[in-house]
Structure formats: structure tokens, C-alpha cells
Write a structure and sequence with these properties.
By secondary structure, the protein is mainly alpha-helical. It has five helices and no strands.
């Protein structure tokens, strides 16, 4: 019984993407309501202003999270998701290791005298 690695589509389905954005919007709306004192004794105008502001903040955060996560998912190459990485991620593919006794920044600049 072999374990197949999930694809990018399995990792982040559209319903999960919408759920994540909705949860972030709900959190932002509740924080806005609490910070504006909605749950305290306020006048009707102050409570209405807090609700309107919370809805605007929730809508903005919903759209922002949806857009940001979608763009981040587009940046991932599907072929790279299933590939196993056996080297450091931040190194260039053709980078050479500095020789023993040389400073790392001297090897990067190409100055053999340093």
C-alpha cells in the first residue's frame, strides 16, 4: 500500500479557499465590533456605525485574503509540489561552494585576492 502525495488541487480546494477567507473576514469583523464598543451600552447610532464599519472591514479582508492566497497558489509550480527536494532551497542551482580558507563574500564577488 503506497501513499500518494496530494496534488495542489487536493491541498487547496475552492471551498477551503472560500472558507479560509470567510474565517478571516469573520475574525476581522468581530475584532472591529469589539474595538468599537458594540457590545457595550451605546446609542443606536453608535451601534449602527460600528456594524457598518465592521461589515466594510470584513468585506475588505475577505477580498484581500481570497486574492492573496489565490495568487500565492498560482506561484507554485504543480510539478514542484510532487518533487522531493534534497538540497537547500535558497541556494542557486549553479552556485559553487567557496573554497576552504576563503571568505564567503569574497567567493561571491569573484575577487580571488580577498
Amino acid at each position: 500500500m503506497s501513499h500518494e502525495s496530494p496534488t495542489r488541487r487536493d491541498l487547496m480546494k475552492p471551498l477551503q479557499l472560500l472558507g479560509l477567507a470567510f474565517a478571516a473576514a469573520l475574525f476581522a469583523g468581530i475584532v472591529t465590533l469589539v474595538s468599537m464598543g458594540f457590545f457595550q451600552q451605546r446609542t443606536a447610532e453608535e451601534a449602527q456605525a460600528a456594524v457598518v464599519t465592521a461589515l466594510v472591514i470584513a468585506g475588505i479582508s475577505f477580498i484581500a485574503v481570497l486574492l492573496i492566497v489565490s495568487l500565492l497558489l498560482l506561484a507554485v509550480d504543480p510539478a514542484q509540489v510532487t518533487k522531493q527536494i534534497d538540497k537547500p532551497v535558497l541556494f542557486d542551482d549553479g552556485s559553487e561552494q567557496p573554497e576552504q580558507g576563503q571568505k564567503p563574500d569574497a567567493a561571491a564577488s569573484g575577487d580571488p585576492k580577498a
